[in-house]
Each structure stands twice: as structure tokens, then as C-alpha cells.
Amino acid sequence: MLLNRLLLVFIFYGVTFTSVYAVEHSFAQQYKETFAHFIDTSLTGKGRESFEAMVKEVENNIQWHDQKAKNKYLDAYERSLPFMMKLGRDDVPKIVFLIPYLESTWQGKKGNPASDYGYWQMVPEVINEIRQLDEASDRLMQADANTARADIELSTEAALIHLYRYYFYFRHVAGFAEEDAWLFSMIAFNWGAGNIKATIATMKKKGKTVTFSSFYHYLYTLNKMKKGKSKTEAQSSRVALEYLPNLWNIMLLIQQRSKLAKK
Questions:
Q1: What's the pTM value of the predicted model, to 2 decimals?
Q2: How far apart (Å, rounded) are the C-alpha atoms in residues 234 and 214?
Q3: Which residues contact 162 (CB under 8 A, 6 or more apart)?
């Protein structure tokens, strides 16, 4: 697969084999620097402690290798590089492009077309809603939901529109800081904005000051409490709690891979 990736990049982008590794290292650094900035800015005190505890707790979800020493997230990194090299989007933080690693491992036909499907694992109802928006390109407007979700360019366009709508709400309606708004948006992409809004409302009723850090610690304490919580509620909050730590561990894996490739 490594040879295939190098050949593809060489053929389609006209770069030397040496510069392929430089580009790969650049992307890995961008993921690391952006993610570290967001975490350092948004997570403090108990929120940071909760995040770091979850990073360690879910590490094996990401770091494992099969019997052939293969890791599906590293394979996904190789699949993503040609697309990422030509994407040229600087209107969203780079860390949002870690989402397809976790959702589909950058595979266009993964999932069930009747529900979660495609690169970003979006449901048809959301795709069809996005297709009606002025922000959608003509090509996205004209594509059906399955075609859009299985197409790397169209699915990414739809996902970024969707994420930006979340960001607009959390930043400009709810009034959170920019970094907090993006982290809320990334969790909302998987868990749903409704669940986040309900959790925030509950926190406010209890007199808690809500930031992303206090929200994350609140989720952490809820997940650790067993009394008075149904299995469904526990599973739901657990998914939200693990989402960013899983993405963080993917970033660390990519960073480690990039360092080894550079040697």
C-alpha cells in the first residue's frame, strides 16, 4: 500500500518521492498543532484531567494492529492523502478531517445506505436537507443522497456545511468561544446537537457554568456514575465522551507514523 500511495502521488501530483514524505509530515504536524491548540485552549482543570483519563482509557481502540501488523487508521491515512493534498480548505480547522478516520476509515461505501453511510457516515435525511441549501454546489444539489455520501468530494462538502452549521449555532447563537464551538460541533456531528443542548440545559438548571471544559467533565462524571442511569443513557454519553479522545489517539498514531517515515 505504501508503494501504491507513493506512485499515485508521484503520478497525479508530479512530486518527488522525497517530497511525498515532507507533505505527509506536514499534514501530521497540522493535525497535531491544531488539535493541541484546541485542547490547550478549551480544556482546563477537571475537564482536562477527564480528557486525559479518557485518552488513556480508549488508547487500545486506535493503537491495535492485526496479525499482519496492520492498523486500519494508518491505512486510512494513506487513503486520505491524495484527496487532502488537493483539498485546499482553510475555512475549517484541520482537526475536523480526522472525523472520517473514525467514521469510515476514509471508505466511501462503508455502512448501510438506509442509515449511516459513506465517507462521513451521514444519514440520507441530513444529506437531502443540505442539498437544498444555498451553500451547496450545483453538483451536490443534483446528486442523490447515496451518490453524495459515497463520493469523497461531495460527502466532504456536505459534511463541512453540516459542521459549519453546528459551529454557527454554538459560536454565534449559544455564544461559546471559537475553540469551544468547534469541539462542541465535532461531538455534535456524532452525538447530535440535541443531546448536547439537553446536557447544557441540565447543567444550567443545576447552576453550573457551562464551557466545553465543564461540559466534558460533566459527561465524564455522568458516565462514571452507575446509580440512576439506564444502560441506554450510559452508552449514549459514553459515545460522546470517547469521541474526541479517539480522534486524539488517531492524531498521535499519524504523528508517530510520520516520524518513522521521515527517518
A1: 0.87
A2: 18
A3: 122, 126, 130, 189
